[in-house]
Design goal:
With 230 residues, the chain is an alpha/beta fold. The chain contains ten helices and six strands. The protein has a six-stranded mixed β-sheet, with helices on both faces. The longest helix is centred in the first third of the chain and has 24 residues, at 2-25.
């Protein structure tokens, strides 16, 4: 009973934190004292506590067909945090984000392109279970997972967030976006700079010199800003 109450309390706090972020994005600069208390409580949580609150999640229908939850991977104190769309087949089997073909390309971008180990960054997705056929996540699925994504961001507190593709970028920017129009431009989520860029899967499908160059420019800008150089 105590464990269940603690989990429910954690979920309420995460939801409050999400609501607070939305108010800030809408220009509300004053919030009730209770909301400020919730903000402080959520930010104090660790990744382990966020994962414990997620539990063996059955909050949406994706739980019925998954092999396992794909929570996140990497440095819990990373300066760079990458947010993708959702697990694919290999991720569902292995329980780690970005370990399929798109993940291999992302790893190359990080290690060969930026010159840092993948283990130095943190990587997660807006949803934690694989959608059937790797389809785009539904609104209710994203809504169910959002408190835990926010919990991961609050726990890591990166200097820069890189959103990979349209779904992740649309969620954090708070509106439906065209990734070709917003990639390479700076935005903000919860006070953290956000750099949208193409998803590695898109780059694999449209493997042109231009697309590779654009992603490289985006990642280089994100790395420089995370190091306080721009």
């Amino acid at each position: 009973m105590k464990r269940r109450l603690a989990q429910e309390a954690a979920e309420v706090l995460s939801a409050a934190r999400a609501a607070l972020g939305e108010l800030v994005e809408e220009g509300v600069d004053r919030v009730p004292a209770a909301a400020k208390v919730a903000k402080s409580a959520v930010e104090s949580r660790t990744l382990e506590e966020v994962r414990a609150a997620l539990g063996e999640c059955t909050r949406c229908g994706l739980s019925e067909r998954r092999t396992q939850i794909v929570f996140g991977d990497g440095n819990p104190q990373a300066d760079l945090l990458f947010v993708g769309e959702g697990p694919g087949e290999q991720e569902d089997l292995r329980g780690l984000p970005f370990v399929g073909r798109a993940g291999e390309l992302l790893t190359q971008m990080i290690e060969r392109g930026l010159g840092i180990a993948r283990s130095e960054v943190y990587i997660c997705n807006i949803i934690k279970c694989r959608p059937p056929g790797n389809r785009t996540p539904l609104v209710n699925e994203v809504t169910a997972c959002r408190p835990f994504l926010d919990g991961q961001i609050d726990a890591v507190r990166p200097r820069v967030i890189v959103t990979l593709g349209k779904p992740a970028s649309s969620l954090l920017l708070g509106r439906d976006i065209a990734i070709t129009k917003v990639r390479g431009t700076w935005h903000e989520y919860r006070g953290i700079p956000v750099m949208p860029t193409f998803h590695p899967a898109f780059v694999l499908r449209q493997y042109t010199e231009q697309n590779r160059r654009l992603v490289w420019e985006d990642l280089k800008a994100a790395l420089e800003r995370s190091r306080g150089r721009c």
